[in-house]
Amino acid sequence: CVLCGRTDDCPEKYGEKRTYVEYNLTVHYYCLLMSSGIWQRGEEDEGVDGFLIADIRKEVNRAAKLKCNICKKKGASIGCVDPKCKRSYHFPCGIQKECIFQFMEDFRSYCWEHKPVQKFPDKECRGTSQCTICLDLVEQLPMYTVLKSPCCKNAWFHRECLQYQALSAGIFFFRCTVCNNKDKFQKEMLRMGIHIPEKDASWELEENAYQDLLQCYQHCDIKRCLCKKGRDYNEPDSKWEIKRCQCCGSRGTHLACSSMKSWEQNWECVECQSIFAKSGNYSKQKKRSLATPEKTDGTTCLLEEPSPKCPRQSPGSQRNFLLQSPKMMCQNSLSPCSHLEHQLTPASNRVTMSLSPLMSNRNWSLRKKQLRKQQREVSNILNELKLQVNTKTTRLNINAENIWNSALKGFRQRKFSPTNTIEIKFTNCKNRSKTDTSAASKHHFFQLLMLHLQNSSLFEGSSAKNLSLDFQAVRENLYFEAGKMIAVSLVHGGPSPGFFSKTLFDCLVYGPENVKPALEDVADVDVAQTIKMIKYANSLSSLQSTIHDCYEFLAAAGCLRPITALCDKNMLVNDILTHHVIKRIISPLESFRQGLKTLGVLEKMQMHPDAFSSILCHKPERLSAETICDLFTIHSSSGVNKVEGADFWIGYLQDVESGESVVTLEDILLFVTGSFSIPPIGFDPEPTIKFLHIRYPVANRLLNCLELPITKTYEQFKNKMEFTIRNTLRVERE
Fold first, then answer.
1. How many CB atoms are closer than 10 A to CB 655?
2. Considering only the top CATH level, what class is 625-733?
3. With contact defined as beta carbons under 8 Å apart, do 494 and 447 qualify?
4. So what's the pLDDT on residue 325?
5. Hey, which residues does 79 pair with through a beta bridge?
6. Residue pLDDT, tens place only, 188-234
7. Where in the chain are the domains?
8. Which part of the chain is the PHD-type domain (predicted)?
9. Per-residue buried b or exposed e for 215-248, using 16+ beta carbons within 10 Å of the residue's own CB
10. Burial class of 341 by CB neighbour count within 10 A (0 to 12, 13 to 18, 19+)
11. Rounded distance, CA 473 to CA 602, Å?
12. What DSSP string describes 469-529?
């Protein structure tokens, strides 16, 4: 180096060593930056990063006359900036003598006598601590080799560790490893002589480092692919969009090929299901992925995915089941008639309804029975809470294209009260409005709102979600508003969120101090990978090595601890999980709990946890023919063949469920009620069916009444149903 005279090539200490053959010049970058008699007078691409070659030679000639106060040799180009100090030295000599070089503003240099020092209270300057970068011990003393974080009380570092960290992270990612403070931390470290290069982090500069992440698997692997354009065809936002396996991501299916209504539903490939089944963890995996309730009364309340071999079959039941008879009410007598039985006898006017054998899977039947029992219990509880709602109305003006802001504005208006009856007025982007005060409009509003919350920054996770930490949302009290909206939706006939994780639900019901989170609750992929590396370390040396590699994360989580035995990893993993999943979001959680107290919902959740977990922790059961059949009460008048009409209706439901129709069970429910699913509180009024001498089916959504035509043949009935439902829904979408 023409300035310091050394041949050392150590970029971490002296900066990059550059040689320019055409100028017969070699120089350390730091020696050049800190020299007192030279400035960057050129552009960045001129000379050496803006230092002109002529100026460098002048500086070399100037320094040749100055003797270094440390090594006593000529060429000392750096001087102390203190006005009364006349010391000069080479850059490497200054490092050796513990001088301070500030890589900012005027690039000042301070000798060992006038250098800035960090000041600590006497009570802090004792004992030892762990360097939160290398995890080795560091003395808590105001020394050149030791630096303390200005923003954290117990964060101490080796100077050398900090310098390596700064060179790697660059100005955009260099921050306190404990609290992630950037501005205050960088300002103090620059003052104390840490060089923070103005560049991107080293891990961001690696060419094609993330190229693999850009490749997505796009192929339908279902045995019976229904797409006429082939297995590789993918059309986003349609039933031919390809959904990848949520476990491996290396298998896919068209939504239609697996009877999935929306992209948000979970899907696992056959291989992953087989692996979970063989390992005995399949139930546990499904529980986590669908966020279903834990076992109660010896049965599990899990909803399994349908087999890919039955593309349009509802998962709630198999095609062969015994449909229970619809409830019949005779309008002419105003008294309940007998339920339809398996045989028709003249005395009782009972109808033959022998459809198919009972399901052979006893466990599945028990799970369904338990789930429906809990849902009936929730319905009764919510109807009890609904007694608080009075007839006074509050109208919300809702822009469906900006559902969150318009809902937030409505809920925060002075006149809004959760005990008032809610009316919805949808407005479009052209300032034209359409008012619809029916329950269907209200349900549609809450459905859009729950979908927005599920995908908002307030929650994190794939299907089973926990609260995230959004400081902006905390400041604006949005967690409280989200809890309030969910409570109002449940009581006013809207859908349940259905995406709570078991951990989030338990925190709300039992309190965060009584909940132990699991690895599945960690949504951040990097954090989850870090925890796995610690959890599955098989030796003390590998554990310590892993902790060393993860020092930044552990420091930020406040989970650094001496590790002396392999078993210490279990406590460390628990600490990390508790911090990341629970302690980190204590403030949002408390705000969210306060919102859920609206209309007494949280109190009922705490009194009936099993029942509420069935609607908050997983999506509603996919509709089945049996469910639709039970939902509707059939009214018939004299002169109408109620037996034949009910026969056609139930037969049509079976065809729809088995995929032999152009419409779905969800389409039928939407046609009648304006809702894709059955709300937890149920429908008010209860859905009914009338058989009349009309040409086509008619749906009255105000009364949830379906008027069906009387036809001579089943084919006529089916054609009229499909024509009317398909065209009505198409017009509504347009």
1. 17
2. alpha beta
3. yes
4. 36
5. 88
6. 999 999 999 988 888 877 777 666 666 778 899 988 898 988 999 99
7. 17-110, 128-204, 374-518+586-617, 625-733
8. 1-115
9. eeeebbbbeebbbeeebebbeeeeebbbbbbbbe
10. middle
11. 21
12. --HHHHHTTHHHHHHHHHHHHHHTT------B-HHHHHHHHH-GGG----GGG---HHHHH
Give the pLDDT confidence of 485-524 residue by residue, as tens digits: 999 999 999 999 999 999 999 999 999 999 999 999 998 8
* Count of beta carbons in the 10 Å neighbourhood of residue 274: 12
**In the chain, how long is the greatest CA-to-CA distance?**
125
Tell me phi and psi for residue 435, to 5 degrees.
-95, 130
DSSP code for 580: I
> What architecture (CATH level 2) is domain 17-110?
2-Layer Sandwich (3.30)
Task: Provide the token pair at 356.
Answer: 């198919």
The one-character DSSP state at 353 is -
Q: State which CATH number among 3.40.50.300, 3.10.20.30, 3.90.1750.10, 3.40.47.10 fits the domain covering 374-518+586-617.
A: 3.90.1750.10
Q: Give percent of the chain with pLDDT exceeding 70.
A: 83
Own/partner contacts of 336-344, CB < 8 Å, gap of 24 or more, are: 340/646, 344/643
**Letter for the amino acid at 143?**
M
Q: 342 or 450, which is more confident?
A: 450
Q: What does the pLDDT read at residue 329?
A: 40
Mean pLDDT, rounded, of the chain: 82
pLDDT at 476: 92
Q: How far apart are CA 127 and CA 122, in angstroms?
A: 11
Q: Which of 6-15, 89-98, 278-287 has the highest mean pLDDT?
A: 89-98
> At 505, which amino acid appears?
F
709-731: pLDDT as tens digits? 988 899 999 999 999 999 998 88
Distances (CA, A) of 194 to 29, 65, 191: 15, 29, 7
Alpha helices by DSSP H, 28-174: 29-34, 53-63, 91-96, 159-173
What is the Cα 39 distance to its own chain's centre? Answer: 51
**What does the block give as tokens for 87?**
């010391």
Does residue 490 contact residue 681 with C-beta atoms inside 8 Å? yes
Cα separation of the two ends of the chain: 75
